[in-house]
Amino acid sequence: MDEIAAEAGVSKPVLYRHFSDKSDLYVAVGEWGTDLLMRRIGPTINEGGTLLERIRCIISTYLGVIEEHPELYRFVVRRTFADRPVRSDPVTAEKTVIANSLSRLLGEYLRALELDSGGVEPWSHGLVGMVQASGDWWLDRQSMSREDLTDYLARIIWFAIDGVLRSGGIVTDPDAPLEQTLRLRAATDEEPPDVG
For residue 132, what is the domain's CATH number? Predict the structure, then answer.
């Protein structure tokens, strides 16, 4: 608290006028960090382009934020500062918002292709957890570039999507625009049956 007060240019009593205790400060910092992350990631989820491009952009943006603010990330994710249970968990809230946005995107994509979208919610939460855990590992190790990690994670996620599509009889190019994939599916559905 002394260090935070000094960095802010205020005394500890002034700091405590805004925050009742360390846990209250932790939540405020976590909410600020979550807001920063969502301001950066939010637009990438709805950007155009291929699904693989969107995946890469989301992952790269996330890794860019934690690379830019590693101490903030560690402070919020590792919770070593909070001295009692917190009233809200900004990390869980952030992961839920991202996973829900991803669920909507994947769900719309699968439904447009007339595939079962029932599993997109747990799938999306798993993907978000994988990216967060990989980012945590990367931030500590820095044994590969952000671009390489982004590419590895994007390919893993794409292969999962590709597997779901193939199980529904759809083979698609990861670099094709989503609209093209949807048009190809519609064209396939309109072809008359082969009565040889």
Answer: 1.10.357.10
Q: Report the chain's mean pLDDT, rounded to a whole number.
A: 82
Integer Cα distance of 28 and 176 in angstroms: 42
Report in angstroms the alpha-carbon separations of 109 from 50, 99, 113, 165, 179. Answer: 11, 15, 6, 10, 10
In a domain, 2, yes or no: no
Provide the H-helix boundaries in the chain.
2-8, 12-18, 22-45, 51-68, 70-78, 90-112, 120-141, 146-167, 178-190
Domains in the chain: how many in total? 1
Instruction: Give percent above pLDDT 70 in the chain.
Output: 85
pLDDT digits (tens, 9 = 90+) for 101-131: 889 888 988 888 889 999 999 999 999 999 9
Write down the pTM of the prediction.
0.78
Please tell me the distance from the alpha carbon of residue 82 to that of residue 9, in angstroms, as a whole number: 22
User: Which amino acid, residue 114?
Assistant: E
In a domain, 60, yes or no: yes
Residue type, 184: L
Angle at which helices 120-141 and 70-78 pack, to 10 degrees?
120
